[in-house]
Amino acid sequence: MTRVAVLHGGISNEREVSLCSGVQVAAGLREAGYDVDLIDVTDDLPALLAALTPRPDAVFNALHGRFGEDGAIQGVLDWLGIPYTHSGVRASAIAMDKQVSKALFTAAGLPVAKGAVVPVEELFAADPMPLPYVIKPVSEGSSVGVEIIRLGDNRRAAVARSWRFGRSAMVEEFIPGRELTVGIMGDRALAVTDIIADAGTFYDYESKYGDGGSHHIIPADVHPAICARAMDVALRAHQAIGCRGATRCDFRYDNTMGEPGRLVLLEINTQPGLTPTSLLPEQAAYVGIDFPRLCAWMVEHATCRE
Q1: What is the pLDDT of residues 44-78, one digit of tens each?
Q2: Percent of the chain with pLDDT over 70
Q3: Is 290 helix (H, G, I), strand (E, B) or coil?
Q4: For 32-169, where are the alpha helices, taking DSSP H only?
Q5: Is 173 exposed, middle or buried (0-12, 13-18, 19+ CB in 10 A)?
């Protein structure tokens, strides 16, 4: 493969992140020797189809959020018969839906947080579970819309009143402790990273993408049993959903009572960020895979109609 179209931008809440990812990917692929077309995806589907004519050898999907990693654009590319990076339609749609993916994780025996999906009107009326708990959209990424309701917090009704992510929300127990993440390339777990959000906040959107919003410790300074467990669970989550290419699993690790503590799988990201602050490229570099090689690996494993 020599000609690669990099799709970035999109129309989700994560457009700016995707634009940054796409620029980084295009530069990496060019350094790896590919002929690259960088395409800013908007809500104009005919314009996208025109930009993909003549067909490239592969599409690098650097889109994030809805219509980018939920199976929508994957379906378009399957229809066109163009190989693309990352997971296919079914796995992408499942991973983006936290309720469905959590059910599959549970069926696979993976550790998940207690919780449920509740109508927003019920959330407005009363606490759906004991405090503290987390409120999150069912189908968003990058911690968009995530809120933590703590003891003594009176924001629940206000959060419900201003909710803009559908008629329901996922509510889960709050897991104290640390944030860990594990990247996957194919059938290989890369490493465990400990994520420390600055200013004592949780790992929210600003912590993920803002300059100095967080710092990463790789390899994570955790009990060896937890490190091995996190890498095993991440790979099993990748396989349970039927993912391909690269993914990243996020965990909470409660070691407040000592180690080894409790490890909880939060979600799987089928299209990890590829910005200068992103975790997957950092883990790949840690195991000896530089950014151009990482991008080239994704292109070489591109496929469609799976």
Answers
A1: 999 999 999 999 999 999 999 889 999 999 999 99
A2: 93
A3: coil
A4: 45-51, 72-80, 89-96, 98-107, 120-125, 156-161
A5: middle
Active site amino acids: 14, 142, 209, 248, 250, 267, 269, 273
Radius of gyration of the chain from Cα atoms? 19
Question: Cα(28)–Cα(20) distance, rounded to whole angstroms?
Answer: 13
CA 219 distance to own-chain centroid? 20
How do strand 214-217 and strand 246-254 relate by DSSP bridges? unpaired
Could you give the domains of the chain?
A: 3-86 (3.40.50.20), 95-112+176-288 (3.30.470.20), 115-173 (3.30.1490.20)
Q: Judge whether 148 and 202 are in contact, CB under 8 Å.
A: yes
* Edge-first strand listing for the sheet containing 3-9: 35-41, 3-9, 58-61
> 9-25 pLDDT, tens per residue?
999 988 999 999 999 99
Query: Would you say how long the chain is, in residues?
Result: 306
Rounded CA-CA distance 108/62 in Å is 29
Residue 250 corresponds to which amino acid?
A: D
**What's the maximum distance between 2 C-alpha atoms anywhere in the chain?**
59
Enclosing H/E stretch for 294: helix 291-300
